[in-house]
Amino acid sequence: MTLPVAPDVETILDSCIETLREVVVPSVEGDWPLYCAELMAGSLEYAKHLLREDLDASRRAELRRALDEVREIVAEASVPEWSEALAEESPFVAASRLLVACQNSGGAAAEQVRAILHPVLYAQLDAEMIRTRGLFSAFARNMAGAK
Amino acid sequence: MITRDQVEALEIHLGEALDDPCKLLRTDRMSMGQSRAMYLAELECETSGRRKVVIRVEQWGLLGSDSRDEVRVMRALHAAGLPVAGVLSYDPSCEILGQPFFVMDFVEGTSVFTRESLDPYVEAIAGLHALDFAALGIDFFDLPSGPRDSALLQVERWYEVYRGDLVGEPSPLVEEAAQWLRNHAPETRQVSLVHGDPGPGNYLHEGGELRALVDWEFTHLGDAEEDWAYLIAMRGMGVMDEEAWVAYLAEKVGVDLDRDRLAYWIALNLFKGACIDQTALGIFVRREVLAPNLLAIGTCIHLSALKRLADTIF
Fold first, then answer.
1. Residue B27's domain spans which residues?
2. pTM for this structure?
């Protein structure tokens, strides 16, 4: 016997989050258990985001597109380290090596490379911070010295 | 968590450390501190009766530090009469609690910040910076030798921690920030003992009196400005803004902070935060410790430090 329609994962997670916040947290005694319960609610919210989206693939694709945009700048600059960086298979490794090399070279071309890569990396950073906002709030509330 | 199986061995250890056989009545996990699991333990000792001690347990290398130097520096400073808890024992073996740990005196007081506790605290940190560390036998830290080594040693130390516990692939912004910090490292005029994690939450006080400076795991030799930057931009950022901190420190302890250099040390502290936070993610994804605070440190706390770092230097 199976259920005709199983409840979806998000609904189950939402139930856990709401129960933790509305029932468990108000009744928990002790700093450490309370801290853990608040963090668990934030963890479940983050897990919901991770279930919903294939972040790894989308981030790689975004960064790969940005790296494609800088190819012309790199070709014109004729700095061997820059070209070697772009040859890396992983976009994260390629961007890392290229940005490090740009820090060492300086100049307008390095600025142009940063102007293309940084917005993509910042956007990914900001998006991830939004996904982990619940965790952050729970952590900050319980920082030593905060209460 | 200290399990029932571990209690008997821990009682033997504590009895030997205190030279007084004892029973462990209860252990409560303290929520303060992230890099170590901290337990307040209540003991019934044969001779001295009831007493409290604090057990500080390593967490699989969380935040890239170990207890060895922490214990050594605490012992040296306690012996010199500074407000530092006495270390009663140190067990690096992993045989009793599965991780290295040390036991220290319980010090009465609160870590909750109050404005009246600030003056004695910053005076104590200034005093720490002025110590003749060599005369106290603190000769076990790397000694910066070149003029830029106070900064460069720290950049490489935290970069190694980051690379050593990397989960998946490198973060381009962390890599770039490391290079920026190498290229812009300032010169240090005088090498001091640096606490490494100063500010509200890392001292105990009571009635306006400083009771103990705590959390010595990041202590090292370097530039005192690193500590002031940490106090201003990290633990103390909710107390007052940078401008007010600079004025307050100048008036209270005579520290004259150059704003460009301060900006560098703030960036270095943010870099350190971003790097060490990654160790939490490694421990979590390897399932060594599945505590939710490690997920938080390895994700949102890392990201927050990285965001502030990028905003500061790029």
1. 4-105
2. 0.93
